[in-house]
Structure to design on (114 residues):
């Protein structure tokens, strides 16, 4: 996150973001899981995420998986699974695009909740 190229690409906003590093999702969940609504992004089901139905939450975590292996199936039980709808011509969005879409929609929808 503090690689010079990342800092430059963020135009300095990386210094305004709280960054936490965890060895595993379980470690994160033990520290913050009870305080937050969890929204795993899954390719095989869940609620289709759109601007008009983006969940409202005071404290939330968006969980994304690896581009190649996705999130394990059990993440459907972790919270409200979300799916970004797309054309049948595309297998899936890459991680940076999916994260960008999710972060944008949640930020816009939850601006008042913060």
């Amino acid at each position: 996150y503090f690689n010079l190229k990342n800092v430059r690409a963020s135009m300095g906003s990386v210094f305004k973001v709280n960054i936490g590093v965890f060895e595993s999702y379980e470690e994160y969940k033990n520290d913050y899981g009870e305080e937050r609504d969890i929204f795993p992004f899954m390719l095989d089901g869940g609620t289709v995420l759109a601007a008009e139905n983006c969940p409202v939450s005071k404290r939330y975590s968006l969980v994304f998986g690896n581009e190649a292996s996705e999130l394990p199936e059990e993440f459907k039980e972790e919270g409200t699974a979300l799916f970004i709808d797309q054309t049948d011509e595309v297998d899936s969005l890459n991680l940076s695009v999916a994260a960008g879409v999710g972060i944008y929609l949640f930020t816009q929808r939850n601006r008042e909740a913060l």
